Amino acid sequence: MKKPIPFLELATLHQSIIGDLQNKFVEVVQEGIFSAGREVLLFEHNIKKHLAVPCAVPCSNGTDALEIALKALDIGLGDEVIIPALTWVSTAEAVVNIGAKPVFCDVDQNGLLDLSKAESLIHPKIKGIIPVHLYGKMLDMETMMTLAQKYQVKVVEDAAQAFGSFQENQSAGSFGDIGCFSFYPTKNLGALGEAGLMTTKDPLLERKLRLILNHGQLERDIHELVGRNCKMDTLQAAMLNIKLLYLRQWQETRKKLAGMYLEQLGEIQDITLPRGLLNADHNAHLFTIRTAQRDGLKNYLANQGIGTAVHYPHILPKTPAIADSGFFPMAELISSTTLSLPLHAHLLEEEVGYICKKIKNFFIP
Ligand SMILES: *Cc1c(COP(=O)(O)O)cnc(C)c1O
Description:
- The chain has 365 residues and is an alpha/beta fold.
- It is 40% helix and 14% strand.
- The protein has helices at 10-15, 18-31, 38-51, 62-72, 90-97, 115-118, 141-151, 203-213, 234-265, 294-303, 329-337, 349-363; strands spanning 55-59, 80-84, 101-105, 126-129, 154-158, 166-167, 170-171, 178-182, 196-200, 217-219, 222-223, 287-290, 338-341.
């Protein structure tokens, strides 16, 4: 096989539905409504059905969703929020941007906020916890919520990577006070640009989320509070409405390919395979293996034309902009040994077979 296998290839994915996307684009342009409007309302309706959640509030992107969520919960200056040491930078940015202080907690074997360590970090200034369903795998939300209720802290779920993950038939993002999603193009459901979403069960919170993201107004020119402009583009809602129709099918492909990886890589002693990937509470967003020879393997695969990625090469407390001097051994271990293999709905079974063969060659030459 000589054709390179990139880590992700968004053009191929969209090629298969390009006619539908084109038609919808023309329809929206001809209607001439580019902010709010019926495509955004339809998106809300579709999401509520797909995730079985009572309230869905579309917005500009996942980072804004986190920030708006914290603001709506009245968390701000002088408050502290527990977040995992290993996550995408947005989780910390949202906390810092509302004037609060992130308090880092180490992660467990799966890269998820370690709930056995989180309890000892809770003190009176802690107003919230942001569990991150990293790689698409959900935290144990029953334990998470029991802890939060015990100490009366708010929970904002960072479900940016977990659209389509369900625990006990309940969607990621629907356990905490507010759930935040991202439709960044590389996510399992990606827009053709930037987009995000917040979910909540509380109608008063829903109202506040809607106020904040639209200049503090529900009615034109009546500004109840100082808000922001974080509305979802009509065009993005329209594209997402089309892509939602294919999501179940794309998810099935991801799961099938993930199963093939698990089967074919199982015999390699030097690799730790991801856990729970085929369960309902994992949406197979990323296929992350762990190996002490991560950098060597990454280079070897690159030379064979196989793209991989590292999620994430630095733990957040080691990021200069956010620096924290604590000790986070599991986050460090995962960060220095993890490698994400290609996994998306247009990857071919032969390609997974080829990647696995090359990985075996690396370890057993
Ligand atoms: C993608 C992502 C975000 C941010 O979403 P954007 O839409 O890119 O702003 C937040 N948290 C995590 C864990 C993510 O993976």
